[in-house]
Amino acid sequence: MYKILLVDDEALEREALRIIIERGFSNVEVVGEARFGSEAIILDGKLNPDIILMDIKMPGINGIEATYTIKNRNRDKYIIILTAYDE
Length: 87
What we know:
The protein is α/β, with parallel strands linked by helices. It has a domain at about 35-65. It is about 40% helix and about 25% strand. It has 3 helices and 4 strands, in the order βαβαβαβ. It has helices spanning about 10-25, 35-45, 65-75; strands at about 1-5, 30-35, 50-55, 80. A 4-stranded parallel β-sheet has the order 2-1-3-4, with helices on both faces. The longest helix has 14 residues, at about 10-25. The mean pLDDT is about 95.
């Protein structure tokens, strides 16, 4: 069973991702949700997810900065960056 952490400042986006994951994959469990990059860093340490789905643009520590911090602790961590940017 793969453990996933969802990171997005938009509750609707987190809920949509949770529904897609829970309905589409039997070998995956959403173990936590974070609204900000700083929360993602803390929850990564507590929950040790296998995969993190990370938004880029968030208040405070953004997804790029949080990814950098998390990857410095564990280079083998899988982080998938999500964005609604069209560029």
